[in-house]
Give the backbone structure.
Amino acid sequence: MKANQELLHHFSCDQCKYWWAVGSKSFEVGQFLYCTNCGYLNRIDAIDTSRNTPNSSGDTLLAP
Ligand SMILES: [Zn+2]
């Protein structure tokens, strides 16, 4: 079996709480991003990855 890893960022607007995702693009802390729903200019304060997000080990799909 082959496996591919996808780069996907999820965003949640500080103003309206709208949620959206952007794939295949890198983002950095401190970057500014307009909300795709309300147009509010958000600053990326932190980026949680699967390595530092609690309870996201991904082990649930692995066979015992
Ligand atoms: Zn918004």
In short: The mean pLDDT is 86. DSSP finds no helices and four strands in the chain.
